[in-house]
Design a protein that fits this description.
Strand content: under 5%
Number of helices: 5
Shape: globular
Number of strands: 0
Radius of gyration: 15 Å
Structural class: mainly alpha
């Protein structure tokens, strides 16, 4: 039996690689561990929980440890993520004001 990925999974992985490459300067300035950016699923896990709840994580990363500038870069990265067409959900890893602002822009009730 072969271990082949479906064309959809291959395309999704390539799209994620392009997203990460395009946002590399923001990612580097955000202070987010590379483990959180392994895939869109890892990044979703982080945004949904504030940590990797469903993937291995040996980083001991805490979002509270980010500086003000790093947090601002993270918010910019999340905005870029949803602007790139990734499905909207409330990113609970972010503070309430940013959740609401992004929800107004990308949420299901917003006009597109």
């Amino acid at each position: 039996m072969t271990d082949r990925r479906s064309p959809h999974k291959v395309a999704a992985a390539r799209a994620w690689d392009r997203f990460v490459s395009a946002n590399d300067p923001i990612i580097a300035a955000s202070g987010i561990p590379n483990a959180y950016l392994t895939s869109a699923e890892h990044f979703d896990d982080f945004l949904m929980n504030g940590y990797l709840a469903h993937h291995p994580d040996d980083t001991d990363f805490k979002i509270e440890s980010l500086s003000t500038d790093q947090y601002a870069k993270l918010v910019l990265l999340v905005e870029s993520y949803f602007a790139a067409g990734y499905e909207w959900f409330t990113p609970v890893a972010l503070r309430s004001p940013e959740q609401h602002r992004l929800g107004s822009r990308f949420g299901a009730s917003s006009a597109r």
